[in-house]
Each structure stands twice: as structure tokens, then as C-alpha cells.
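Check the record.
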Amino acid sequence: MKITIVGSGYVGLVAGACFAEVGNNVTMLDSDKEKIRSLESGIIPIYEPGLEELIKKNKKLEQILFTTDKKLAYENAEIIFIAVGTPMGEDGSADLSYVISAATDIAKYISGYTIIVNKSTVPVGSAKKVREIIEQNLINKNATFDCISNPEFLKEGVALKDFMSPDRVVLGGNSKKALDVMKGLYSSFILKNDRIITMSAESAEMTKYASNAMLATKISFINEISQICEKVGANINDVRLGIGSDSRIGYSFIYPGCGYGGSCFPKDIRALQKTAKNEGVEVKILNAIEEVNRYQKNILSLKIQKHFGLNLEDKTFCLWGLSFKPETDDIREATSINVITFLLQNKAKVNAYDPKAMPNMKRLFPQINYFENKYEAAKNANALVVITEWKEFRNPDFDRIGESVSVIFDGRNIYKDMDLSKFDYYFIGGEIKSK
């Protein structure tokens, strides 16, 4: 099929690469000329395992095209995916200005029957809004269209796998014709149609927010339980095993840690809070999720303060991990930002290493020291702070680290089962003193 994707950000690039991989002709449209030039040259603006190779392969096969030409992108497209950003506004609501701009442009150029798909994370009622905008601005009166909501459920770091083998595809709309076309499109990735779930556009839009809110709830819940464990002498790692064995709960997303970040959970929780407020609904659980996570993102700083006090002028801290999670270079709302800010405010020296996220963090904190090797970063440091659970951090040479480091702050509990008797060891939910 002839597919156009508006927006060459994370969602757009992953969707475009995967649709092209199964034989569709994909046009990627973006207003950022420099980004399009870079993509044409094979430079991918984000890190996602396997994405660069997939895009280069399909570009060579001429199954994916990058352009800023709206007429070229829209005129003959059979399906148009709107995958632009919906950043958080000052009041917490999702900013739909890019979605509205895309809908207005689409109305100027579509010529035949076209399916318009909202792929961006948008508030309830956005598909209806897009339809109204296109109807009001439609130039070619012979053109017809349907609007579908198709939220994404990609996890950064495994996005290609999630897209190519989804646990479900949610399609929202009331046009049987459009829904049948979309089912056919996704049949390349799904052998069993029971994983394609159809509903109203409003329900599909709410499904995206509710899904992220539920996952964030599980994270904040286990983090709050870890705080209780620390006070009463219980082991949060054992507690997690105890509750996760219940099939009604499961182990997914109940890993204690130093708070969630990224582009989805924080933004989507706040957007859902704003929607609820606008509708006069009190959301005590959603408010608590946010409150717990704000506290948890400072938990490592509190542990550092407990151990060293606030006079850190003669101390050097080594940070392992800057991205908000492994297998991505995304630092949006990352806990590392909280930790670095705390350390700099208290005049500490900061050494940092991350396999992918250092270029992004350098733009925020050019004044700290960055290293190309985890051991070089730890050399001469007084303390090691583990923020992101990259695989290369999971079984390091502790003898080598211990040449200077005397205390480890483990923000992801990855060393909970190891012999750290030569260190003071702080983890989420407790601490172990070597002396």
C-alpha cells in the first residue's frame, strides 16, 4: 500500500521502517529539512536497536522515501499516519498544535479515498477533531476519507519487536471499510486476528492513556512498598518474588527502582490528570502515582546525603547510566538529571558513562566529566551510582572498582545477589554496611 507517515520522530520512524519491511511503499514527511537531509544520508536521529539497519535496507530497496514535500506525500497516499509530537503544555494537557497543522495540510492535498490515522498519543476526542478540521479545509470536494485512532504501544529498546510482533493492535473508528483496510495492513504482523481489537475512536484514545497509567501505577506501587520495607527490615526483592508469583499480579513492571522517566509515562499521566480535571473527575490514584514517582527520582540523592552529608566538595561520584532506561539514548525525565543536579548543587565532582546517552546529556550538563569506558569513569571516584541497568553494568569487576570506590548506590537493585562485603551498599529498599 502507499503509506505516508507525518513526523519522523520515534514512533514515525519505527512505524515507517516496519511497514516498508513488509513491502509497503512508505513516504516519511517532516517539516524539518535538516532532519530529512540527515535521514536521506543514512543518519538516524535516535538510537533504537536495529532501526538504522532496517531503514538503510528499505531505502536501498526504494520502499521508504524521506521528504518535506507535502503535495508529494499526501496526494496519492492511501493511508496517512499522523505521528507528530504532542508535547505537554504548560497546564499539563497534550499540545495538539502539530496534529492540527498536519490535519489542515492533509485537507489541502488528498485527492481520492484516504484513511487518516491518528498514531500520535492524543486526548479523547482528537480523531473527531481531526475529522472536523479536514472537513472544514478540504480543497478537493471529490476526495473522501475516514479517520481512525491507532495508538502505539512501543517500548523503547525493543520497539521493532513490539511493532513486528505486537501483543495487540487497537483500532478505533466506526467505518467498516477503513477498519477492514487497517486489519489487512496489520495482517502482515499478526497471524491471529484475535489480537486486533476494534472499538470506538474515543475508547482507543483512552486505551492508550489507561495502559500507560496502569503500568506507571505498578512501578510507583512497588517503589512505595520498597520504602516501607526499608523501614521495617523486610527485603523488597523477596517481597517482589512473593507477590509476583500471583498470576493476578505478575512480575512485569514491579521491579523496584529509582523512578520512571521517558517521553510517555510522565506526559501521559499528566495529560490524563488534565482531562479528568476538565471533566470534574477526582483522580486520587493518578495524583498519587505522580507524587510517589517525584519522590522516588530523588531517592538516590537522599541516600547519598544520608551517607556523606551535604558537604560534597571533596567527593567524586561516578554515574553509570544516564538514559531513562537501557537500549535507548532518551534522557527525557531521566532520574540521572535529578542526581546530577543534586551533586552539582552540593559542589561534588561528577564522572559519567553511558553507552548511548552521553551526547544528549552533554547538551544539558557540559560541565561534568564524560568517559568512554565505565572503569575509567569509576577511577578515583569515591562512590558509584548505578542509575540505568545496561547489561554491561550487571557483572562488573568489583575488585577494579574497589580500588577507589568505597560505596555503591544501586538504583536498580542489579547487585542484590552479589558479594559486596567490601563496600557500603545502598539499594532501593535498604542498605548493607561493610563495616
The longest helix spans residues 201-232. The domain at 2-199 is CATH 3.40.50.720 (Rossmann fold). The chain is about 40% helix and 15% strand.
